[in-house]
Amino acid sequence: MKTRVLLQGLAICVVIWTVVFAAQAYFRSLRLTAESLESVVNEGEFVDWLEREGEPQPAEAREREKRIERVVAGMSKLEFAEGARARAMDLKHQLFSKLSPGEQALFVDLILKQLDPYLTAFDALPEERREKFLNKALKEAEVEFTPEQGTRFKELYDEGTREKIAVAGWREAMKGKSPDQIMEHLKLIEIAGELLQRIRIPKWEGRDRDE
């Protein structure tokens, strides 16, 4: 009798753990990652538009726009570590390079709408605080990006550009810029947004006593 009860209990435990492991595997498969979004970007149907002229025909355009919106929505849901991985993989630029001019403008507009809370929070700061957060973001970029990317950022954010962003805010600094030019600023806007939200805690923050 005891043996049968023991075996039944063991069988129940096996069933429960099998269900648990299956559920974990299922939810892991649903979890958004930089790689899963990259696979969407690189799907065969999402053809590269660089060698084409003009814009997609209406039927194709609608499908491509849906895919663009899906990727952008996915990017907004990435956890902090996955968002950093997506930046390291240059995922936004991977997609941007595949788009027609009209789609590039749409993509940048969607990304900026996604980043609107960060832009609003940053631009609402006093000039001195904007300058401080910008410098922090640039310092974080040095940690996260490759030496080549770091060199490009130093070129992009020369003294004049940094002063303009600190004085006028990011929105004003972005006015009149093409989608290509705005794309160059997105990574730093994201990093500054993470610092503002305290999602990103710099390793060197303990040495920064004047915040």
Share of residues in helices = over 70%
Q: Compute the gyration radius: what is it?
A: 23 Å
> Which structural class do the helices and strands define?
mainly alpha
> How much strand content do the residues show?
under 5%
Could you spell the SSE succession in H and E letters?
HHHHHHHHHHHH
Query: What integer is the average pLDDT?
Result: 78
Give an overview of the whole structure:
With 211 residues, the chain is mainly α. It has 12 helices and no strands. The chain starts with a helix and ends in a 14-residue tail after the last helix.
In short:
Helix content is 73%, strand content 0%.
What's the arrangement of secondary structure elements?
Layout: H1 2-30, H2 34-41, H3 58-76, H4 80-88, H5 91-96, H6 101-114, H7 116-123, H8 127-144, H9 147-156, H10 159-168, H11 170-174, H12 179-197
Helix pairs in contact: 2-3, 3-6, 6-12, 7-12, 8-10, 8-12
Keywords for this entry:
disordered C terminus, mainly alpha, 211 residues, single chain
